[in-house]
Amino acid sequence: MKRWLSHCAIGLYLSALSAGLISQTMNFGSASHPIMYFFVWDMFCGWSSHEIRYHVIGEGESGAYYQLAPGPWQTFMPYGDLDRMHYDVLGNSHRKMAMNALAHTEHEPIRRVIMIEEVWPKKYNMSESSWARRYDEPKDPLSYYWQRAEMTAEGNVISAVPEYLTYLQTSSVADNPRLVNDLHRGRDHFVLSPVQRMASTGRQED
Description:
The protein contains six helices and five strands. It has two domains: 2-38; 50-162, no CATH class. The protein is extended. A five-stranded antiparallel beta sheet has the order 2-1-3-4-5. It has helices at residues 2-26, 94-103, 128-134, 164-174, 177-185, 194-201, and strands at residues 50-60, 65-69, 110-121, 144-152, 157-160. The protein is an alpha+beta fold.
């Protein structure tokens, strides 16, 4: 009986593994159901080695700065002790949060609204004891502050740049002489998928 159960467990595991690999390789059904998350190959491909926090700040006419997100009320923390604004890596909701705080609070006239991205390596999240066992140098956390966007008091975007990690990645490619030479030797081309063609023409592909 034990041998039969062990054979059954091994068979189920190999079947699930094979189904996930085939689904990922053939690009078929990999997003058909949430449970497929546990079988496809790219489960944790989006994890980063850096921690990111967002600060939405308003600058008043007096030169004082105000925290606009989260607002001066109870915060919503869906997954532990982190406010929901820190999960929005694209910054789609930060403007709305700032405008909501300005609309429901008393304050001096606001000159501009700034969205700041704070970035630091995740290794600094270790406890002091874990750090001491792993590294010889003392723990000296360092954060990088990156201005993602600047807006008027009405929410009109004045300037916006990509996130800091994207900037670093782009800079590393631009600083590579071999890649720059390949870029100059290449020929410009455009790749359009059937979905993009259908959206641009307004009709279905045959």
